[in-house]
Design a protein that fits this description.
Jelly Rolls, elongated, 727 residues, 50% strand, mainly beta, Immunoglobulin-like, Neuraminidase, ten-stranded antiparallel sheet
């Protein structure tokens, strides 16, 4: 809460940023601002950490912290299977799904009322791969029988490529109609010629399995392996070079992007044994979750790896912050997988990393979609890896297959249990982001909410606010304010409170466009509270030892302000009997101590008053102060009185002080050395002390006895007496 000038400066700053027009700014006035501003706080949310704790309904959050409308997910009809391994689309718009564990292929006609119908039933347990060759021709590859079926005639027996081939992991078709099959368990790449329909071995790798295959624009074949996580580039003549040796043990998916780059996704399983074989099987521990599924030689699905339940959610943000990813592949921790991008120079750049397995990828319009198991998340990668967004999170689903359709929709195949859904190309028409609850620590007045956004034509962002006295919104909170979109006409208000929350509503009238929220900030100030004085300490002169005269008193205090305002202090003093207080010092101080010269003040009993004020941070009408009086204390400039009488060879000495105790005394006889003396009760602890001094044995004659005494304030008094000694 600074002065009015500061409030005007802040307002000018905001108006200036609006005039510059570098971003779309909007404001909602939340309350009438009092005439004097105290220290203004700003709650600003931006970047992935700023919005990470917000509740998101129908919006996505990129790794750069950009909030956009999400694409809705629309389910298709139920499909009777355990998992969908692959998807294909024919020219008519029909969708084909390769499934397990019953070894079937299902077909969905392009009609709104269509249901999934069996298109192929095999003796194998798994149909692992599909490829659309031409027209309505779709090929399907199985395991563990290693058969390939032409679905144009489902009654035609499957073709066995070779006795050694047990698994058709992936199929790809080049422009000429030749078909390529990535197989196992001998890591071979087979080719079917379009001209004669015969299969021939194109490349025999040293790996156990080639898990994925893709055709490059120049006609070369790209294949990914298990064990060492190798990516091969294989020519039409069958010669191969290793393009990449991934830190992960499996390259599971390959996709050519519309940007001309190759994308490779890995699916290494958690656990040290996963490097050597994709067919390991062991019993899961309690509370474990399936990460990846593989097909054993028996044809049954073995659950190759499990991770503890608390590790199943991928953790975003492990990616390099360099736009386009990192060109230096990092070692992979157990269970971590990545997407690598290969441009024309074939230099791999890691553009995405996740705690999970990447079984499926698809290029759709201007972005790469990456499906992650086991948490059912799909991530969007744009701008050569510079922009990564969690597009959708499906409950209880492993993403095993993705298929991009010409209209921009993406078909999703899942496992455990199987489902096929569509990720729509259009954006949600309306969605909202509800912030976490802001704790202002004290009851506060809320100023302007402002945000930085991009709103293409037909899109909008509006903001609503509410406040309350408790941390969990309930019936004690204010209702949401009216939605505000125009900062020039913001008229909403919300009551003062300790807690605050906003919600941003993103909307579009054009399903191809989305607004983008980049940051949002709230200006607020706590309602002014009076300073607090914890202590006020003044030296106790009665506790002194009299070694030095106490004419300056060091006054100390401890004070603070709940609003963290800057404080100033004033001291006043009053002596017993005075009608009012008088000031100490001419100006307030910001120090928490004061050295008081008591010389001009008469001896007596006093009290001090400390006044702590927050005037330095507040306008006059909002300034608050707190006062505290000290305990009574003494100022003593007067020396103790000393009287002495002599009788029968003894001196009786009386020492008296009006305000503080006697601290010490001594005597000198005839100017000789001063000698300490002590009270009859052996303790200097009172305002009045009596001392008896034995003077017997003096030489005959008249002697001078001088006595001096010091009080606890360091004041010295003295007295004398003549002593007559007779022979």
């Amino acid at each position: 809460m600074r002065r009015r000038a500061r409030a005007r400066a802040v307002d000018r700053s905001w108006k200036s940023s609006r005039t510059l027009g570098t971003s779309a700014l909007a404001a909602a006035v939340l309350c009438a601002v009092a005439s004097g501003w105290a220290k203004v706080e700003t709650w600003r949310q931006e970047g992935p950490t700023g919005f990470a704790r917000a509740h998101r309904e129908g919006v996505t959050l990129s790794e750069e912290g950009r909030v956009r409308l999400a694409h809705p997910v629309v389910p298709t009809r139920p499909i009777t299977a355990e998992r969908v391994w692959d998807l294909a689309r024919t020219d008519s718009g029909a969708i084909w799904a390769a499934t397990g564990d019953s070894g079937k292929v299902f077909k969905l006609e392009p009609r709104a009322d269509a249901s999934w119908t069996p298109a192929l039933e095999t003796h194998d347990s798994q149909v692992l791969a599909l490829a659309h060759t031409r027209d309505e021709h779709v090929l399907a590859g199985t395991g563990p029988g290693g058969l390939i079926f032409d679905l144009a005639d489902p009654k035609t027996p499957g073709v066995r490529i070779a006795p050694s081939v047990k698994y058709i992991w992936d199929l790809a078709v080049d422009r000429g109609g030749d078909v390529y099959a990535a197989t196992g368990p001998e890591g071979q790449l087979w080719k079917r010629s379009h001209s004669d329909g015969r299969w021939s071995l194109l490349y025999d790798s040293k790996m156990s399995h080639l898990l994925c295959v893709a055709v490059a624009p120049d006609g070369a074949i790209i294949a990914g392996s298990d064990r060492e996580g190798l990516i091969y580039r294989i020519t039409a003549a069958g010669s191969a070079t290793i393009v990449f040796d991934a830190p992960q043990s499996e390259v599971r998916s390959l996709v050519w992007g519309g940007d001309g780059a190759l994308y490779a996704g890995t699916a290494a399983e958690a656990g040290p044994a996963a490097r050597t074989s994709p067919f390991l099987s062991f019993e899961p521990s309690a509370g474990a979750t399936l990460v990846g599924a593989r097909v054993a030689a028996s044809g049954r699905v073995v659950r190759a790896s499990y991770v503890p339940e608390q590790q199943t959610r991928p953790q975003p943000g492990a990616r390099s912050n360099v736009p386009g990813g990192s060109a230096a592949p990092r070692p992979a921790s157990p269970g971590e997988n990545a997407v690598y991008r290969f441009a024309a120079d074939l230099v791999p750049r890691e553009v995405f990393r996740v705690k999970g397995m990447i079984h499926a990828m698809a290029w759709c319009q201007d972005r790469l979609l990456v499906g992650v198991a086991p948490d059912g998340s799909i991530h969007e990668i744009r701008n050569e890896g510079a922009d990564v967004t969690l597009a959708v999170k499906l409950d209880s689903a492993q993403i095993l297959a993705l298929l991009a359709e010409p209209d921009g929709n993406v078909v999703i195949g899942t496992g455990d249990s199987a489902s096929v859904r569509r990720l729509s190309a259009r954006y949600e028409s309306s969605a909202r982001l509800v912030s976490e609850v802001k704790d202002a620590r004290l009851k506060s007045r809320f100023g302007g909410v402002r945000w930085d956004a991009v709103t293409p034509p037909g899109t909008s962002i509006s903001v609503q606010c509410r406040s309350g006295p408790v941390s969990e919104p309930d019936e004690t909170w204010s209702p949401w304010s009216a939605a505000q979109t125009d900062p020039a006409h913001a008229a909403a208000s919300t009551p003062a409170g300790r807690y605050f929350q906003y919600r941003a509503i993103l909307a579009t009238g054009d399903p191809r466009q989305t607004p983008e929220l980049r940051s949002i900030s709230l200006a607020y100030r706590t309602i002014n509270l009076a300073p607090e004085i914890a202590r006020l300490d003044i030296p106790d002169l009665t506790a002194g030892d009299g070694a030095a005269r106490q004419v300056r008193l060091s006054v100390r205090w401890d004070a603070s302000d709940p609003n963290e305002d800057d404080l100033s202090y004033a001291l006043k003093v009053r002596k017993d009997g005075w009608p009012d207080w008088i000031a100490l010092g001419s100006e307030p101080t910001q120090e928490k101590s004061y050295s008081w010269d008591t010389t001009p003040f008469p001896s007596g009993k006093y009290r001090l008053k400390l006044i702590a004020s927050d005037r330095r941070s507040n306008s006059p009408e909002e300034t608050l102060a707190r006062e505290r009086e000290s305990v009574p204390f003494v100022v003593d400039h007067d020396p103790p009185a000393v009287t002495a009488t002599v009788r029968d060879g003894k001196a009786s000495i009386l020492i008296k002080d009006q305000l503080v105790r006697i601290a010490s005394a001594d005597y000198s006889l005839d100017g000789a050395t001063w000698t300490p003396i002590f009270p009859d009760d052996r303790l200097f602890d009172a305002l009045e002390e009596r001392v008896t001094l034995d003077l017997k044995g003096l030489k005959p004659g008249v002697h001078v006895l001088m006595v001096r005494a010091v009080d606890a304030a360091g004041n010295t008094g003295s007295g004398d007496v003549l002593v007559e000694s007779r022979p």
